[in-house]
Amino acid sequence: MNYITKPLGQFILFVLLNIAAAPALAGEIALIIDDMGNTERDAAAFLLPKEVAFSILPLTHLSEKYSHKAAIQNRDVMLHIPMESLAGKRLGPGALTAEMSAESIRQTLQQALATVPDAIGVNNHMGSKLTQLTVPMNATMEFLAKHQLFFVDSRTTRYSKAFKIAQQNGVLSARRNVFLDNDDQPKEIDVQFQRLIQLSKKYGYAVGIAHPYPQTIAYLEKKLPSLGEQDVQLVTISEFLHTQQLAVNQQVNVAPQQVSVELE
Predict the structure, then answer these.
(1) In angstroms, rounded to a whole number, what is the distance separating the alpha carbons of residues 221 and 86?
(2) Per-residue pLDDT tens over the stretch 145-182
(3) Deepest in the core among 37, 92, 137, 144, taking most CB within 10 A?
(4) Using an 8 Å Cβ cutoff, are 30 and 199 in contact?
(5) Which residues span the domain enclosing 53?
(6) Global pTM?
């Protein structure tokens, strides 16, 4: 005997059809602006949506000022810690290098963090050499774990061990998927931004890193408000990390990482 009445059966069919026809869940994008604090010109980035995180260089005359200003906006603040590169580029103050002892790394991180006092996470500035080395990365991640800071691997080399070692130390962590402005021409920024959107739709989420270049800020001011039209949501990096951790726990596929030369 069929215990489902015709009206009830029609209602169930209606619900199932609507579920099937419903649009896919929106992709989520987390966006980080690196290199904040070099110049007063960087202040233009404060006009971007508060979901955009700022990663601030330590020990500059603007580090603490920008940290507080971003926090007042309820924006995620990160420490953009310089790490030694294979190219031997000038690192700036607060840098971590391969010859430093674990204690020296901890002291340097503590000093750097004091100048970005609102930081809740860290990512690397350059670092194509240091992020390949187990001992300094372990010292770094032990410090972050102790201070309950998350880590985003900027992935300035395909051989980076930073993300894996962060995970081993229980540090909430993620990897960069796309650099938006390695080539800072608007046309090329758009190509990378569309790639970021595509990855977020395919995998559910993606991380982008950009810089406070005038052309990048102008592009993002124009494009970020219309993300919803592409079924994509801009989220904070802290929200993103919790989403990613849940996905990892559920063994959901994550986006492949874009290999990049070190251009920071």
Answers:
(1) 34
(2) 999 999 999 999 999 999 999 999 999 999 999 999 99
(3) 137
(4) no
(5) 26-249
(6) 0.85
